[in-house]
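Input C-alpha cells:
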C-alpha cells in the first residue's frame, strides 16, 4: 500500500522517525488546518489538534501491539491515527464558552476518503483506514451503552476491532486530560467484548445475510444469534457510485432485469439534474412499487451516495418483501473525470466535487448483500 505520507517502521526507534516525518507532513493543507484548530482544554490540555495528533502517533508507535502487526496493518492503523481528527477544524463550534467538534468522526471519514482516493491509495486499504476513523471514538463508550453487543456488531462490519482498539488507545494516551485511566480501561473492556463475541479480527458473524439485515433493522436488545425467517419474494438491486463510475455498463453486463434509471426518467420528463427532482423521484418510486407488488426483480440506477438516501430506498424495497442487493462501483479519480467527460450528459466537475463531500460507501449493515467493485484499468472489474 502506497500512502501519500511517510509511515514509521514497526521496529525503528520512535525518535528516529519523528523529526523528518513531521517536517514532511507539516506543510500539508489538512495538517496546517489542524495546527490552527484549538481544542477544549478539559479533554485536550495539550493544545491544538495537530499537537494532539503528533502525540497520538508517537504513542501508537511505542505500543508493542502495534509493532507486532504485519507491515501493511501497521500502515493502516498509523494512517488512521494520523487522520482521525482531520475534520475537527471544519466541525469546530464554540458553545457556552466551550470548544466542541460535533460530528468530526463522520465528516473525518469522508474527508479521509477524498484525500486517499485522490492520492490513488488502494480502495480496500483506504476503506479500512476510513472505517477506523469513522468509529475511532467507539471503544471509549461502547461498554457503557445500553446494548454494547449491537454497537460492536455494527462497528465490526467496517472496522477491525483490534485495529480500532489500537487507534483508540493511542488517542487516549496522546492527550493531557483527567480520567485517562478510565478511557484506557474502557478500551480493554472493548477488546474483551470483541474477543468474547468472536469479532476481534473479523466482522461479527450472523446466521445468514437475512438475519444480519433483519437484526440491524430491528430494535435494540434483539438477539444477534437468532436466525430470521427469510420471506423475501424478489431481488432489488440498488446501484451506488459517483457519476462516471460505470453503473450503466455494469448493469448491461451483469443484470438482465428491468432498470429504473433516474437519468432516463429525467430525459423522459425533460428535467435537468440540477432542478427540482420531485416528479422524477415520484415516478421512479411508483415504477418500483409496480415491480415490488408483482414480486418482480429489478434494478434502481442512481448515484445513491449517502446512507440516508440508500436507507429510504431500502425501506421501500424491504417493505414489499424484496431481498436488497447494493452494488457499489468505483474508479480511480483520474478515470472517473475522463469517463464522465465522455458521457452524453456529463455532470459538471464542480457538482462531482460537491458530491464527494457527502460520499459514504455502503456497508454490510445496509442490505442483504453489499458488493464493492473497484476498477483497475488494466484488470477490469474487481469485486471486493
Amino acid at each position: 500500500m502506497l500512502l501519500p505520507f511517510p509511515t514509521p517502521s514497526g521496529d525503528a526507534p520512535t525518535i528516529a522517525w519523528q523529526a523528518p516525518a513531521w517536517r514532511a507532513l507539516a506543510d500539508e493543507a489538512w495538517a496546517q488546518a489542524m495546527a490552527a484548530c484549538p481544542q477544549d482544554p478539559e479533554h485536550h490540555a495539550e493544545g491544538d489538534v495537530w499537537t494532539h495528533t503528533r502525540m497520538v502517533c508517537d504513542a501508537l508507535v511505542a505500543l508493542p501491539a502495534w509493532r507486532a502487526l504485519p507491515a501493511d496493518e501497521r500502515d493502516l492503523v498509523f494512517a488512521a491515527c494520523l487522520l482521525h481528527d482531520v475534520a475537527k477544524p471544519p466541525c469546530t463550534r464554540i458553545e457556552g464558552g466551550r470548544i466542541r467538534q460535533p460530528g468530526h468522526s463522520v465528516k473525518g471519514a469522508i474527508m479521509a476518503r477524498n484525500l486517499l482516493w485522490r492520492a490513488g491509495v488502494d480502495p480496500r486499504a483506504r476503506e479500512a483506514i476510513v472505517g477506523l476513523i469513522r468509529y475511532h471514538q467507539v471503544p471509549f463508550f461502547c461498554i457503557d451503552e445500553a446494548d454494547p453487543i449491537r454497537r460492536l456488531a455494527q462497528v465490526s462490519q467496517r472496522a477491525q476491532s483490534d485495529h480500532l482498539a489500537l487507534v483508540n488507545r493511542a488517542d487516549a494516551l496522546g492527550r493531557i486530560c483527567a480520567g485517562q485511566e478510565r478511557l484506557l480501561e474502557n478500551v480493554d473492556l472493548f477488546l474483551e467484548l470483541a474477543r468474547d463475541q468472536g469479532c476481534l479480527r473479523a466482522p461479527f458473524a450472523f446466521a445468514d445475510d437475512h438475519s444480519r439485515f433483519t437484526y440491524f433493522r430491528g430494535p435494540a436488545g434483539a438477539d444477534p444469534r437468532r436466525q430470521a425467517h427469510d420471506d423475501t419474494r424478489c431481488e432489488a438491486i440498488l446501484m451506488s457510485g459517483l457519476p462516471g463510475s460505470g453503473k450503466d455498463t455494469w448493469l448491461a453486463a451483469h443484470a438482465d432485469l428491468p432498470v429504473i434509471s433516474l437519468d432516463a426518467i429525467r430525459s423522459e420528463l425533460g428535467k435537468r439534474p440540477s432542478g427540482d427532482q420531485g416528479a422524477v423521484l415520484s415516478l421512479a418510486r411508483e415504477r418500483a412499487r409496480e415491480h415490488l407488488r408483482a414480486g418482480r426483480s429489478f434494478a434502481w440506477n442512481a448515484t445513491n451516495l449517502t446512507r440516508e438516501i440508500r436507507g429510504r430506498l431500502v425501506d421501500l424495497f424491504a417493505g414489499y418483501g424484496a431481498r436488497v442487493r447494493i452494488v457499489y462501483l468505483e474508479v480511480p479519480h483520474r478515470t472517473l473525470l475522463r469517463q464522465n467527460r465522455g458521457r452524453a450528459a456529463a455532470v459538471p466537475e464542480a457538482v462531482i466535487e460537491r458530491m464527494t463531500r457527502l460520499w459514504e460507501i455502503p456497508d454490510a449493515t445496509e442490505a442483504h448483500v453489499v458488493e464493492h467493485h473497484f476498477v483497475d484499468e488494466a484488470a477490469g472489474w474487481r469485486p471486493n
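The beta strands are 93-95, 98-100, 234-240, 259-261, 298-301, 322-330, 369-376, 380-383. The radius of gyration is 22 Å.
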